[in-house]
Design goal:
Blueprint: H1 2-11, E1 14-20, H2 27-37, H3 46-51, H4 58-69, H5 75-91, E2 94-101, H6 103-107, H7 113-131, E3 134-142, H8 147-157, E4 164-170, H9 182-190, E5 194-195, E6 197-199, H10 205-213, E7 220-222, H11 230-239, E8 243-245, H12 247-252, H13 266-269, E9 274-276, H14 287-308, H15 314-333, H16 339-358, H17 362-373, E10 385-391, E11 394-401, E12 405-407, H18 414-435, H19 439-451, E13 455-459, E14 462-468
Parallel strand pairs: 1-2, 2-3, 3-4, 4-5, 6-7, 7-8, 8-9
Antiparallel strand pairs: 10-11, 10-14, 11-12, 13-14
Helix pairs in contact: 1-14, 5-7, 8-9, 14-15, 14-16, 15-17, 16-17, 18-19
């Protein structure tokens, strides 16, 4: 099961919209480049460096981030850095990347702007040719430096408008409001660049307002503190301002203590335009994907236990399928909800404990599911699922509702029940056409079902029909 689930997750096409390329530098490459250039690192080994990746704030992360950048000296270094990231991204199913780069981190060390840009750009073009990954490059200004320095950096970037599509603002947020860079962003817009900005990560909601009103950005990177200002939330929803939210980054950098404390609530998630960015830079690029896989593995193990206990009870088979469907929904359909991941771990832990204590019977499964549904924030994320499973002549008809639990189709309103009766008849006709090898008719009936909002899932020995509401 784990292998097929891993393949499923990695195979989903992904877009990475919040990625700091310097932060993807792996310890192994850092040591290799340090040896090449004769740079002394304050760590004796790769393992010691990796062990240093424990942070208590954004600033502690940035201290290591900037120290690692010291090994990047020539165009080949920046090419190697970017290609290493693109290989990992390709392995994870990423098909589009929007990359931040911080030229001031390097020009301040005497590295020419062109060296940085050309190395990164060449790798992006190579990655597009080799992996089919499309890209956009965003020049970021370091907000802890002066606006004059940012303006000089912008002027250096004007020669590369064909490679750079936008400018952004990153680095230490506290004490460095967006208003500090109004003239720089005004100039950038006049020159034709798009504008984005990190705001509301550690800084207050007022920084988000400044980024919108003064810098006139079209996207906020992070933005999790927006919920401290109800009027701001309403504005973001009304104006459909995208946020690139980074739950695991916020956890690792102690912006939150638990994923379920993530600042953007389930209610806001339903209205915002989000890109949930799970990749953690600075050698932790794969941790989010691995965390997602671990959640799926654990829910898969839980479902397997239900199947082992199933015997001849079809309700237990449905419960096992529902368990897997719940995690897939939360991780993929509701990927915009950061709290889902933490809630799923809680579900599996409670569910397994309930099974161990009560035994593998139907009542224990119901209690485990109730424990899952009781977690704050999850009820709002789960859709109601009307499901029909056909296996030969056997049929199981259920409705899974996050508020009311599981019940039979007979409890549905007349109109919904009639729709399901039509769907069942159509599905049976489709299965008969498949048995008779009338594939054109089978495809026509499937298209008819999908046109009315039903999802058809073929499975070994049968077929499952679902409708989400």
């Amino acid at each position: 099961m784990a292998s097929s689930i891993d393949s499923f997750i990695r195979g989903i096409p992904k877009a990475e919209l919040h990625l700091h390329i310097e932060g993807t530098l792996e310890p192994e490459l850092m040591f290799a480049l340090a040896a090449r250039h004769g740079v002394a690192l304050p760590y004796a080994s790769v393992e010691e460096l990796r062990a240093a990746y424990q942070f208590d704030s954004l600033q502690s992360f940035l201290d290591l981030y900037y120290a690692g950048a010291a090994v990047l000296r020539d165009e080949e270094d920046f090419h190697a850095l970017t290609m290493a990231y693109l290989r990992r991204a390709h392995a994870d199913g990423v098909v589009h990347v929007e990359i931040f780069f911080d030229p001031q981190t390097h020009t301040g060390r005497g590295i020419p702007f062109a060296t940085v840009l050309n190395g990164i750009r060449r790798a992006l073009l190579d990655g597009e040719a080799e992996f089919g990954i499309s890209h956009r490059l965003i020049l970021c200004f370091l907000r802890h430096l002066s606006a004059d320095d940012a303006m000089r950096t912008l002027e250096q970037g004007l020669a590369y408008k064909d490679a750079i599509v936008a400018v952004g603002l990153d680095s230490s947020e506290r004490g460095h409001p967006p208003s500090k860079f109004v003239e720089v962003f005004d100039r950038a817009r006049r020159e034709g660049f798009l504008t984005v900005a990190h705001a509301g990560e550690e800084g207050p909601p007022a920084y988000i307002v400044e980024a919108l009103d003064l810098l006139k950005v079209s996207r906020i990177d992070h933005g999790v503190r927006c919920e401290e200002d109800a009027a701001l939330v309403e504005r973001l929803v009304r104006d459909r301002i995208p946020l690139t939210v980074c739950p695991l980054s916020n956890l690792k950098l102690c912006v939150v203590k638990d994923l379920r404390e993530q600042g953007v609530s389930a209610a806001a998630v339903r209205h915002f335009v989000f890109s949930t960015h799970y990749r953690k830079q600075l050698n932790l690029s794969g941790v989010a994907l691995e965390a997602s896989m671990e959640a799926v593995r654990r829910i898969g193990e839980f479902a397997a236990r239900l199947r082992e206990a199933r015997g001849a009870t079809p309700e237990l088979a449905v419960a096992a399928d529902e368990a897997e469907a719940a995690v897939r929904t939360a991780l993929f359909d509701d990927l915009n909800a950061p709290e889902a991941l933490g809630a799923l771990f809680t579900f599996v832990t409670r569910g397994n404990a309930e099974l161990d204590r009560r035994g593998t019977d139907l009542q224990a499964i119901e209690r485990a599911r109730d424990a899952f549904n009781s977690i704050d924030g999850v009820l709002d994320l789960q859709p109601r699922i009307t499901r029909l499973v056909l296996k030969g002549e056997d049929v199981v008809r259920t409705v899974v509702d996050p508020q009311q639990g599981t019940f039979d189709l007979s409890a549905l309103p007349d109109e919904e029940r009639a729709a399901m009766e039509w769907a069942e008849a159509t599905l049976r006709a489709r299965q008969a056409a498949r048995r008779d090898r009338q594939f054109a008719e089978s495809d026509r009936l499937r298209t008819e079902l999908e046109g009315r909002g039903f999802v058809v899932k073929d499975m070994p020995g049968g077929v499952m029909l679902e409708r989400f509401s």
